[in-house]
Amino acid sequence: MLTAQSGSKTTAVVNGEIITEEQVTQAAGADLHKLETRRPQAEATYAQEKLLIMHKALDSIVEDKLFAAEAAKQKITKEELIQNEIESNIEVPSDEEVAAFYETNKDRIPLAREQALPQVRQYLIEQSRRQFREPLIRRL
Q1: Mean pLDDT of 21-40
Q2: pLDDT range class, residue 6, cuts 50, 70, 90
Q3: Residue 109 structural domain
Q4: How many domains does the chain have?
């Protein structure tokens, strides 16, 4: 019977033979090395994505507080403010506008036309919403 090397943990036993953590680490050496070389990039990507999420959350909280303060000043609800200043001004694109946008950008849209058109419409609506939301936020 083989014994585990001192300090090396047993990870498996096959037909009475001990496989140590050290043996597994040695066998995985090349793959672990590749993984380690990618680690800094993965950590940087994680940190960047976390920062973006935190900024987005902060922006959302700030906007919410600005809207609430302005609504209170106007003696209306925050929802009424958003409806009056943003939602009521959004232009819903026509079928022709949606189709034209799709045709212009179809090389960059990885969906079939029928699948893409509802998403294109929503994208155009969101663009319109931003056109009214961003100036309101800057004004507040």
Answers
A1: 94
A2: low
A3: 86-140
A4: 2
Whose tokens are 């232009």? That residue is 91
The 3 state secondary structure assigned to the chain is: CCCCCCCCCEEEEECCEEEEHHHHHHHCHHHHHHHHHHHHHHHHHHHHHHHHHHHHHHHHHHHHHHHHHHHHHHCCCHHHHHHHHCHHHCCCCCHHHHHHHHHHHHHHCCCCHHHHHHHHHHHHHHHHHHHHHHHHHHHC
Please answer whether residues 131 and 108 qualify as being in contact, where contact means their C-beta atoms are separated by less than 8 angstroms. no
Is the confidence at residue 115, as pLDDT, over 50?
A: yes
Q: What pLDDT, in 10s, does the model give residues 67-109?
A: 999 999 999 999 999 999 999 999 999 999 999 999 999 999 9
Q: Is 86 exposed, middle or buried (0-12, 13-18, 19+ CB in 10 A)?
A: buried
Residues 71 and 125 in one domain: no
The reported pLDDT for the residue numbered 97 is 96
Task: Please check whether residues 10 and 34 belong to one and the same domain.
Answer: yes
Domain-located, residue 93: yes
